[in-house]
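Query structure, 165 tokens:
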């Protein structure tokens, strides 16, 4: 039987798997893993800096939205729309984390904002600013990008109550 190797080129880059370590796939938090989620999450001053960065993104997005003048009703209606990506957790933690991370990365709203600015599409500008405000709020509150092992494991540290066991 032929041995299956890593996916070629770009497919390996976008894979949800962690890179192989000495011929084995080690996942944070799993038995035999070299790194736990607590070690992979940022701590101390770096964590505080990332949360402050989220607060700055929120403030800038709110200020720009106020200047843009699209209406606060629209803002309130769409502010929590990126959290619909949480429905991915119904299909499992890997799918949920991938969808959540796609909806909570700065790349999407920045591209939408650029489209709105360069193509003169006011709805895209408003959508990009609302989306940026949502991500900034999440990061300021400590909700980071998710690991595939579960919702509570984020790059900003574990969220929720500690496991009593």
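Result returned for the query:
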């Amino acid at each position: 039987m032929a041995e299956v190797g890593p996916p070629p080129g770009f497919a390996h880059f976008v894979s949800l798997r962690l890179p192989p370590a000495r011929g084995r796939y080690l996942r944070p938090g799993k038995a035999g893993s070299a790194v736990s989620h607590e070690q992979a999450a940022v701590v101390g001053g770096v964590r505080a800096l990332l949360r402050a960065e989220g607060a700055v993104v929120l403030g800038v997005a709110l200020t720009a939205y106020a200047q843009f003048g699209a209406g606060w009703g629209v803002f309130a209606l769409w502010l929590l729309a990126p959290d619909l990506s949480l429905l991915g957790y119904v299909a499992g933690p890997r799918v949920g984390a991938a969808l959540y991370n796609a909806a909570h990365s700065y790349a999407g709203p920045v591209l939408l904002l650029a489209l709105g600015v360069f193509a003169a599409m006011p709805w895209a500008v408003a959508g990009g600013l609302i989306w940026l405000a949502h991500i900034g709020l999440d990061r300021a509150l400590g909700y980071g990008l998710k690991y595939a092992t579960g919702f509570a494991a984020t790059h900003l540290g574990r969220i929720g109550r500690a496991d009593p066991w």
